[in-house]
Design goal:
The protein has 93 residues and is an alpha/beta fold. The chain has a domain of 35 residues. It has three helices and five strands, in the order βααβαβββ. Strands 1-2-4-3-5 form a five-stranded mixed sheet. Strand 3 and strand 4 form a beta hairpin. The two termini are 19 Å apart.
Length: 93
């Protein structure tokens, strides 16, 4: 079971919405598998969606237009579990 990576930055620069392909990649994950999303902006608007679908997220900013989001599918996660999103300054990219 390999981890997946989706780099959304080029789609965003072209004015294309990356949400659909990200959600498609998430749907492929097995429990415990990771999707790394590389983004040009802070992901706060999508975090509730991920939490509601039982994904843990770790967010790390590498630069002004380089946000990494590591999403892990966890079937045991329930809405309201804290923290569903971790913003500690840990390096995992």
């Amino acid at each position: 079971m390999d981890d997946l990576t989706f780099d959304a930055r080029e789609r965003q620069r072209l004015g294309q919405e990356p949400c659909g392909p990200i959600m498609e990649a998430l749907a492929q994950l097995e429990p415990g598998q990771t999707l790394m999303v590389i983004n040009t902006f802070e992901t706060r608007p999508r975090e509730r969606v991920w939490e509601g679908r039982r994904y843990w997220a770790t967010v790390h900013q590498e630069g002004p237009e380089h946000f990494g989001v590591r999403l892990v599918k966890d079937p045991k996660l329930r809405p309201g579990d804290v923290p569903a999103v971790d913003r500690r300054d840990s390096r995992w990219i």
